[in-house]
Design brief:
It is globular and about 45 Å long. It contains six helices and no strands. It starts with a helix and ends with a helix. It folds into two domains: 1-56, no CATH class; 60-112, no CATH class. By secondary structure, it is mostly helical. This is (apollo) hypothetical protein.
Length: 112
């Protein structure tokens, strides 16, 4: 399985990339549906690594993907009635605002 994944990851073929993407979708769906703390922890770690990779990328496409994922995540938190989700969103906003305040960028300061 690891060798197959490495081969698919290294391939430039659209078909191979589509196969790998479908594998990942199924894997994530399985982890998302699981009630196991270990499975949920694995998925959370996958997401952290994926986000770090997108954050570090200079590609416009990667940055656009991350921005869209954040929009969807925020919309989900905003729509939720759960106190935990609202607390998470509030903490996200605090961190985001602190980052903007600390920034030296004129554009960032306009939004702080």
């Amino acid at each position: 399985m690891r060798q197959d994944n490495a081969k698919l990851r290294a391939s430039k073929s659209k078909e191979d990339r589509a196969v790998r993407l479908e594998h990942m979708r199924q894997h994530n769906a399985k982890l998302r549906a699981s009630k196991s703390k270990e499975d949920r922890a694995v998925r959370l770690e996958h997401m952290r690594q994926h986000n770090a990779k997108l954050r570090a990328s200079q590609l416009k496409e990667d940055r656009a993907v991350r921005l869209e994922q954040m929009r969807q995540h925020n919309a989900k938190l905003r729509a939720s009635q759960s106190k935990e989700d609202r607390a998470v969103r509030l903490e996200h906003m605090r961190q985001h605002n602190a980052k903007l305040r600390a920034s030296q960028s004129k554009e960032d300061k306009l939004f702080a």
